[in-house]
# Entry
Amino acid sequence: MSTEATSSTPSPAATERPRRITVLAGINALEGAALAVGGLCLLVMGILGRPESPQQAETVGITLIALGAIPLVAARGLMLLRGWSRGPALITQIMALPVAWTLLRSQGALIPTGIVLAAVAVTGLALVLNPETTQTLGLRRGAGRGPEA
# Structure
């Protein structure tokens, strides 16, 4: 066994996690959980044979569960202040915008859902693109800059 510190001990940076990073991680976790739950519902409906095309429902359900893993992993990385987590978090927010637009152009109860999704996605984008988030996650700004930057 090694006498070095294990990864279970929190680093000083982890105890000083900014609130915006925690909120961004929560947004990603919420989106990931929503995708996974929606995918699970479709998968169960497909297995039970309720939709018009059970095979299509099962395929979409598995796809949504897999897509839900991306923001969940990003949320975990953000909570641990890992720099790599910014990319999946950004992609998740960008992908949520066309879905929100589609929901806003629909009818009935889907319109309020689209409004909520749009607000969550725009908030997530603002948080992930914040220069302080980039700095907190240890990412450098600007391509081609030397180590003195």
Q: What stands out?
A: Confidence is low (pLDDT under 50) at residues 1-14.
